[in-house]
Amino acid sequence: MINTNRCTLCQPISLNVIVATGITLPLEPHLTAWQNGLDSRNPCGLCALIYHSLRLGVYWWMDTLLLRYNAHAGAVVVAATTKEFVRTSILPKLLCGEHGEKWFSEAYEYKFKFAYAFLNVNLGIGESKSDSISRRLRSTNPGSDDCLRLARRWLDACTELHGKRCQNVDMNFVPTRLIDVSPKLGRDAVKLVSLLEYDDLGNPTSVKYAALSYCWGTDPFLTTTSSNIRAMQQSISLSQLPQTIQDAIRITRYMGLRYLWVDSLCILQGTDTAAQQDWLSESWKMGQIYQSAYFTISAESAPAALAGILNERPAPSVDFCAIPKSEGDSDAIYLGQHQFSNPTITEPLHCRGWALQETTLSKRLLRFGTREVSWRCSHAEETETRSERQAYPPSNRSIDVEQMAEPTEQAREIYDGWQEIVEDYSGRMLSKKSDKLPAIAGLAGVAQKATGDAYVAGVWRQNASQGLLWMHQRGKQEYARKMEFQAPTWSWASVKGPVRFLQDYFQTTDLVVKFLSSKGRTTEGFHSHYQLSIKGSVLQLSTIRCHQFGSYYGGYDNFLPWGDLCSTLETYLDDLNDIPRRYRRGRKGDPKELVNSCFLFLAESGSLGAGLIILPVEMSHNRYRRIGMFKGFPLKDLGSKQSLRSERAWKLKNHLKRNNDQKKPQTQDVVLI
Question: What is the pTM of this model?
Answer without folding.
Answer: 0.83
